[in-house]
Structure formats: structure tokens, C-alpha cells
Amino acid sequence: MKRRIKITVIVAAFLAILFSPAEKAGAFTVSKAEAVIEVASGRILYENNSLEKLPMASTTKIVTAITVIDNFDVEKTVVVPKDCEGKEGSSIYLKAGEKYKVIDLLYGLMLRSGNDAAETLSETLCGSVENFVKLMNETAKKTGAENSNFVNPHGLPCDNHYTTAKDLALITRYAMKNPLFKKIVSSKKHIAEELVSGEKRVWINKNKMLFNFDGADGVKTGYTVKAGRCLVSSALRDGMEVICVVLNSPQMFERSAELLENAFAEYKTVKVIDPERFDKVIFNADKSKSYELTKPEAFVYPVAVGEKITCVTDFDSFGVKNDYRSGEKVGSIKIYCSKQLIFSQNVYTLKRISI
Fold first, then answer.
1. Which helix (H) or strand (E) element contains residue 26?
2. Which residues have a catalytic role annotated?
3. Are 67 and 139 in contact (CB under 8 A)?
4. CA neighbor of 207 nearest in space, from 228, 225, 230, 226
5. CA 228 → CA 60, 152, 252, distances in Å?
6. At 9, is the pLDDT very low, low, confident or very high (cuts 50, 70, 90)?
7. Angstrom distance (rounded) from CA 175 to CA 143
8. What CA dihedral angle connects 180, 181, 187 and 189, to 10 degrees?
9. pLDDT of residue 339
């Protein structure tokens, strides 16, 4: 029995050349591990040694910050514990007994990389660093990070504390979808208030990308002798947001800028499925029975030339019946990019109509 499906899919391709670490190392020193991801789709646009487990220094604090935001009241007031004063490494110079709102300590954590802020948040919100670290690892798992383990909230060298470039990209992608996290890491400056004395503290962001790279909106720097120079950066241009991770990168700012520029030059986001271009999706069961179907969801994907976008609709394997109930599955739509499945959605009946 012949059935008619009216489905419109808008696709496009672009004249660009895909890049790889071997073909396009660039002008700057390649990092020990690198990954570039597009935020909306989660597509990895570039990777080099992205699965090696490595120390990541203070980029750890990306997980710390989003764990706090996901689980606690950021307007809560906390008191700096005695054992958090004078923490080694980068610091915002907290003193025992000082009071701050959690939100201000998050700015100190992310803009100035305060190790004392990391431990203060961990101890006061979760009772202990150990309890907080459990939450950090739970946060990482739900982002899709499979090869990471955290044992502290700041990133100082410690056995069994590691991530991969790909995992850190996935974690940051998750975090950047949170408006508060994004607001914090995109801020060039923040003025905090110590609530006992009323003293104002001014913190300038250490991330030079915010000041020097067009479209930059985050994220976090890091350095220890063991981890080397590490940077997670992000930028938004023409509606496409990209995150770049470089671990143990001697020229971390320059290399990150290079990788981001490559991504913006060689990929463009395509509205592969645009629901606004649909009038109705019609399914003809037979000559006397027609049904309006659910419209496909909007789907945007970063595409480079040499890649082919194809749409496959399947209404034949679901069988033919005389009547269909509202909400009954009758077909599916699948989108492929260069033969790899990138989108799949079932199609359901809405109502019977006359045409």
C-alpha cells in the first residue's frame, strides 16, 4: 500500500578542509593533550591525545564550581575555617573567621583560582573535603566523563587525581550550559564583600583569553610543575560556541587561540532540521485515511566540507493499519553525517485529518 510522507530537511555543506594534528599542527607548540568541542551538539571538532589520563592543575575548579552551583544555595553565608587559611598555591588570602556569600567565593575560585576558596567551599558546604569530592566525581560522571577522578577541589598535585582532554571538554560543556557558571567565568572583574568588616575585594580574571580573543567567554587557567600549563577556553561567534582544552601546553594562550580560530574557520553550524519550515507532516495510511504527525525537533550541527548530511525516513517497517490512535508511533527520522548517525527521532500521530 502506497503512503505519502511530506518531510522537508534543510542541509548545507561548506568548502573547508578538515584539520588533524598531523596535517595542521600550527605555528605554536602542540600540547600534550588537546580537545575542541562544539557546545550545542557535543561534537568533538578536533582532538590530539585526548584520552590520556593527565593532571590538570586548577582547571579542576571547573568541576568544583559547577558542583557547588548544582547542589547548594549560592546566596548562603559561610565562615572561613581556620584550616583553610594560608592554603598553598594560588590564593585569595582568606582569613579564618571571615564571612562571605558562596557566590563571592565562586568568583574568587574561578577568577583568581583561590585554593583557599576551594577548600572553604568544600568544608563549609559539605562538612569535609572528602564528602565534597564524592559530589565532584558524581558531577563528572553525569557529564559523560569516563576517565577522570578527583581527590581534591583545587588541583594541587595528588596521586589518583587526573582527567583527559576529552573528559574536561565534556565537563566544561555541561558547566557552560548553566547561566550562573557562564556568568562567573566570563566576568573580567568581580567586587566581593567580606561581610564582617564590609571590606570590598576586587578580583581580576587571570584568563587572558577574555581580554585578547574575539568572542571569548571563559573558562579557567591552571598550572603546576607536574601538570604544566593548562587552559580551558571558550568562545562564541556567529551562534556557534566552542570549547578548547589544552593540557601541558607550553604556549597555552597562543595554542588555544589557534585551535579556536581553526574551529571557527573550518566549521559552521547548520540548521539541519528547522521546524519553522514545516507546514504539516502528513501520513497517508490509505486513500481514505490521513494523519497529521508530530514535527521533527530542531537540530543544529557543526559541519565542514567534505562531509555529507543525509536524512533517512522510515515509515515502512512499522506496518500498515486501518486506524491509528493519537500518539501512536508510525515512523522515524534519522540524520547521518558522513555515514555516522548524529540524530534520531520517532514520529507519532497527532490526529486524523481530511485532505
1. none
2. 58, 61, 113
3. yes
4. 230
5. 14, 18, 10
6. very low
7. 9
8. 90
9. 86
Distance between start and end Cα atoms, the chain: 18
Angle between helix 61-71 and helix 115-126 axes, rounded to 10 deg: 30
Cell of 295: 514535527
Question: Rounded CA gap, 174 and 153, in Å?
Answer: 18
- Could you check whether the bond before residue 219 is cis, i.e. omega within 30 degrees of 0? yes
Considering just the CA atoms, what is the radius of gyration of the chain in Å? 24
Closest to 200 (Cα-Cα) out of 189, 211, 209: 189
C-alpha cell at 201: 575585594
Asked if residue 5 lies in contact with residue 282, where contact means CB atoms within 8 angstroms, the answer is yes
Edge-to-edge strands, sheet with 340-353: 281-286, 289-293, 340-353, 329-337, 309-314
Q: Please say whether the beta carbons of 347 and 330 come within 8 A.
A: yes
225 grid coordinates: 610543575
Task: Give tens-digit pLDDT for 156-166.
Answer: 999 999 999 99
- Reduce the DSSP state of residue 98 to 3 states and report it: coil
Q: What pTM did the predictor assign? A: 0.87
> How many whole angstroms separate alpha carbon 126 and alpha carbon 129?
7
254, 48 Cβ separation under 8 angstroms: no
